[in-house]
């Protein structure tokens, strides 16, 4: 009986030591030491100055300190939760935290920890909950010793900058229920199969990393898994049929934005708890996963951005019991009609079928989808009538189809209040994009019923008649009106008195006539005004110069006349096109003095030619907006998506201006394009043009300019297009690489230019035989390719990209996810070298 006694004493002795270690002062001192491991007097630069952990001082019991929880009986620290505490230091390998032996819960969330996670944390053997999420500078690998924390049930290392592989030791954490490694950007390699041992796991989140390879088959063991989010990695495969058939608890599956190439499992109806199924932006192939739609709990399906094909078949769905709210199928190869039984999903709120090859007309049964608030059918091959019930929908995109007409609402409905659009269950701004169809007839008057219409695009159709003046009812909400390229006639109605939110008005390429409505002066937010290609007959609207935001003004190809005097200048204007009108008179030498935006480097100039599209994209919202304007670009009439119309340009060509070209043009240092051609300018070319260092195109042809071409123009090192032809110029042509590259015809028909041997060959500069050499001018293949590419860009940009900079609004943002860029074209650079792959 001696031995038990001995061991009794031994145990007694140990427990004395242990109690000493765990004594309140020991715990308190450990916390104070921990505090001292950080330069804690540094105040948080994001918050009012206050030393972090200032409550951690000896004037009070450590169990009352901020973030500290003790065992009520022993005063041992069992939980330490610090959130938004600016520590600005690293966790040391010998951190005093290790003395808090009884710690169950450790959260250091958003504490600006830097450096690595010390592997010694694996010694906190009682930890159940470890959350070191959202620390700005936490880097290094996940220590494999974390796998020693055998009681751990909750591990959150998300939103840091961790790198390296996921240690397979994590597979030892047999009690783990939550594993969040998301948004570290740097976790690489394959997921260790041992993770499949974690059969208590209910949540696994790893999005935004660089994990690759297959999802391990061992995941089939995770039969308690409810959330599996692996999006934005580089996973390429895995035995999905095997895995998914066993993950019967799954309610949220997101494997979007990876490199999966396979088919989906043929039967997924066993996932009877599934609510969200998200496989967008992979390369999945095969037919529409009909089995999915037999899952009654299903709420959201995202198949967009894959290579699914064939018709939509929903199979046997028990009507009215479906929970489906969102169906996102954009950017696949689906074809065939939109099935009538889509309307069995009565709760559908958002449908996007855009950028497929759907044919036929919009099924009448969709009338029953009373909750529908967003419908995107753009970029398909749909045709027929646009049914009037669609006007309940808040975001309607039908562009780029072949719809032929808009069904009128019955007159009783239009007049009566029973069709009260404002009583739609969905609240919010209304956006209609019906552009690029074959719509005929009048603009329906009931559009005016939408008092919260913010976006209206009916461009590129065959609409006729006049612009309804009842639009006045919506102008106080409208941000964008695009009616470009229709057959609209009559006056532009004077409806803009309250249009203070209107940023873009494009009625170009119609048959509008008469004077410009004076109420435009009240459009104080106006940025882009395009009236080009109509029959407007009015004097120059110099009063528009009071619109402080006006940055793009297109008045070209109308019947505008008279002088263009403007005392104030256009301080915000980036691009002005007055071409092909009958403006006349002389321009004072100081004409451009107050055009400040063209004279200075604006914030938007950073996104011009030299920048990659990626830089540009970062500055745009996820919304969709498309509009374009056309102007002469290096001698070619080119359609620019507004988002690319970033350069600064002046086009006064094709008018009746006389006198000298104002010297003050040289103050507009940021201009890229200057076109004064086809006027009656006299005198010499202002040498101040040489101050416009970034000038890319200069067209002075078809004037009566005399004297020498200023020698300083040879210093314009970015010029790629020059035209001096059909003037009275003489003397030597300046010598520079840029001048030598021009076509001979750029100098033809002058009084006596010489030094053209390199440009025109030994033959003399040809004299014109007819007056239309301007039209017949050949462009280098590079230039025409460029023009083509701009168009391709316009197509490529379709939806998915948005003119945040020019228009500034975010349209169509209520979509729960961002659309793919349509089409297969890709933009490499903004200026010039746009390629189509
Ligand atoms: C923090 O500031 C207090 C006085 O405000 C000072 O006594 C203490 O030494 C400082 N601690 C550190 C680590 O700089
Ligand atoms: C954070 O720590 C770094 C050094 O690690 C130091 O340069 C910086 O000044 C600290 N910030 C504050 C606000 O104390
Ligand atoms: C010590 O902590 C208490 C709260 O526990 C606080 O009111 C007091 O200001 C702190 N003292 C110092 C010197 O920071
Ligand atoms: C931790 O180690 C550092 C050296 O790495 C040493 O300066 C410091 O005193 C140690 N702290 C404790 C509490 O042991
Ligand atoms: C962690 O535990 C290991 C093994 O039990 C031991 O060797 C190591 O010294 C401990 N580290 C710290 C910092 O306590
Ligand atoms: C980690 O802690 C933060 C702050 O308490 C919390 O917002 C976050 O949800 C926690 N992580 C997880 C996965 O719950
Ligand atoms: C803790 O983990 C490390 C690395 O995984 C291992 O070498 C060590 O033996 C483990 N210690 C204990 C006490 O389990
Ligand atoms: C599927 O789960 C069951 C337990 O629910 C398990 O016995 C079986 O091994 C799992 N299948 C695979 C392929 O892992
Ligand atoms: C425009 O608004 C007025 C008054 O708010 C209303 O009487 C009229 O019916 C509206 N016009 C149309 C076409 O909706
Ligand atoms: C313009 O707005 C004012 C004030 O909001 C309102 O009283 C007036 O009726 C509106 N005018 C038109 C034409 O809508
Ligand atoms: C501009 O709006 C004001 C009221 O805000 C109005 O009095 C004025 O008539 C409007 N101007 C034009 C030209 O419509
Ligand atoms: C400008 O054109 C108008 C007619 O459009 C004409 O009356 C006027 O005399 C012209 N002015 C000059 C300076 O040519």
Automatic annotation (TrEMBL):
SUPFAM superfamilies: L domain-like
Localization in the cell: Cell membrane
Listed Gene3D superfamilies: Ribonuclease Inhibitor
Every Leucine-rich repeat-containing N-terminal plant-type domain range: 26-71
Transmembrane segments: 788-812
GO cellular component: plasma membrane
One of the GO biological process terms: plant organ morphogenesis
Protein name: Uncharacterized protein
Organism: Brassica campestris (Field mustard)
């Amino acid at each position: 009986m001696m031995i038990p006694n001995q061991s009794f004493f031994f145990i007694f002795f140990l427990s004395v030591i242990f109690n000493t270690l765990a004594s309140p002062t020991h715990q308190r001192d450990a916390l104070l030491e921990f505090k001292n491991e950080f330069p804690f007097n540094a105040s948080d630069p994001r918050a009012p100055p206050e030393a972090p952990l200032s409550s951690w001082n000896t004037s009070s019991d450590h169990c009352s300190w901020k973030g500290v929880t003790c065992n009520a009986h022993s005063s041992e620290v069992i939980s330490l939760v610090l959130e938004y505490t600016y520590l600005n230091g690293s966790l040391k390998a010998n951190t005093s935290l290790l003395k808090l032996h009884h710690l169950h819960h450790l959260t250091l969330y958003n504490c600006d920890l830097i450096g690595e996670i010390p592997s010694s944390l694996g010694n906190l053997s009682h930890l159940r909950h470890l959350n070191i999420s959202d620390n700005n500078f936490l880097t290094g690998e996940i220590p494999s010793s974390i796998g020693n924390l055998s009681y751990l049930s909750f591990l959150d290392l998300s939103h840091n900058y961790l790198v390296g592989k996921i240690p397979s030791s994590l597979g030892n954490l047999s009690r783990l229920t939550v594993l969040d490694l998301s948004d570290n950007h740097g976790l690489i390699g394959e997921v260790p199969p041992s993770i499949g041992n974690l059969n208590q796991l209910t949540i696994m989140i790893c999005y935004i990393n660089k994990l690759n390879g297959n999802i391990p088959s061992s995941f089939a063991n995770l039969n308690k898994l409810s959330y599996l989010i692996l999006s934005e990695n580089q996973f390429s495969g895995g035995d999905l049929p095997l895995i998914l058939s066993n993950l019967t608890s799954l309610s949220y599956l997101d494997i979007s934005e990876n490199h999966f190439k396979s088919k989906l499992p043929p039967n997924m109806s066993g996932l009877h708890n599934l609510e969200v199924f998200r496989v967008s932006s992979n390369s999945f192939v095969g037919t529409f996963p009909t089995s999915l739609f037999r899952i009654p709990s299903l709420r959201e399906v995202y198949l967009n951005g894959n290579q699914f094909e064939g018709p939509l078949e929903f199979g046997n769905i028990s009507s009215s019991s479906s929970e489906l709210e969102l169906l996102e199928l954009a950017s696949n190869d689906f074809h065939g009609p939109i099935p009538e039984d889509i309307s069995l999903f009565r709760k559908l709120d958002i449908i996007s079928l855009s950028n497929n090859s759907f044919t036929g007309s919009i099924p009448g049964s969709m009338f029953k989808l009373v909750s529908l608030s967003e419908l995107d059918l753009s970029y398909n091959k749909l045709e027929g009538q646009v049914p009037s019930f669609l006007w309940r929908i808040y975001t309607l995109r039908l562009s780029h189809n072949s719809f032929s007409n808009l069904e009128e609402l019955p007159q009783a409905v239009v007049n009566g209040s029973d069709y009260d659009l404002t009583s739609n269950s969905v609240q919010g701004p209304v956006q209609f994009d019906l552009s690029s169809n074959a719509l005929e007839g009048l603009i329906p008057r009931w559009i005016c019923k939408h008092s919260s219409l913010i976006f209206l695009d009916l461009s590129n159709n065959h609409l006729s008649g006049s612009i309804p003046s009842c639009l006045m009812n919506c102008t106080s909400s409208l941000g964008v009106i695009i009616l470009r390229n229709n057959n609209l006639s009559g006056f532009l109605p004077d409806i803009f008195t309250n249009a203070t939110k209107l940023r873009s008005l494009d009625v170009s390429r119609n048959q509008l006539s008469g004077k410009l409505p004076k109420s435009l002066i009240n459009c104080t937010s106006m940025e882009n005004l395009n009236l080009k290609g109509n029959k407007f007959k009015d004097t120059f609207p110099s009063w528009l110069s009071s619109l402080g935001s006006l940055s793009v003004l297109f008045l070209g190809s109308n019947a505008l006349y008279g002088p263009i005097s403007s005392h104030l200048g256009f301080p915000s204007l980036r691009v002005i096109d007055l071409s092909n009108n009958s403006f006349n008179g002389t321009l004072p030498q100081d004409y451009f003095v107050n055009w400040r935006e063209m004279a200075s480097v604006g914030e938007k100039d950073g996104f011009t030619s030299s920048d990659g599209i990626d830089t540009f994209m970062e500055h745009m919202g996820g919304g969709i907006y498309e509009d374009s304007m056309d102007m002469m670009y290096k001698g070619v009439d080119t359609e620019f998506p507004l988002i690319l119309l970033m350069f600064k340009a002046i086009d006064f060509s094709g008018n009746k201006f006389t006198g000298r070209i104002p010297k003050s043009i040289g103050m507009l240092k940021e201009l890229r394009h200057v076109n004064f051609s086809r006027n009656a300018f006299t005198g010499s070319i202002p040498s101040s043009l040489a101050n416009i260092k970034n000038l890319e195109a200069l067209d002075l042809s078809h004037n009566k300019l005399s004297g020498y071409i200023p020698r300083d123009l040879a210093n314009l090192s970015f010029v790629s297009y020059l035209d001096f032809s059909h003037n009275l110029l003489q003397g030597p042509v300046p010598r520079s690489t840029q001048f030598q590259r021009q076509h001979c015809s750029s100098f033809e028909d002058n009084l006596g230019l010489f030094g053209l041997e390199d440009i025109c060959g030994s033959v003399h500069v040809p004299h014109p035989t007819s007056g239309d050499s301007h039209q017949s001018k050949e462009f280098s293949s590079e230039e025409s390719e460029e023009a083509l590419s701009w168009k391709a860009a316009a197509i490529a940009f379709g939806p998915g990209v948005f003119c945040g900079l020019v228009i500034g609004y975010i349209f169509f943002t209520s979509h729960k996810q961002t659309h793919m860029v349509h089409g297969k074209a890709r933009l490499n650079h903004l200026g010039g070298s746009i390629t189509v792959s």
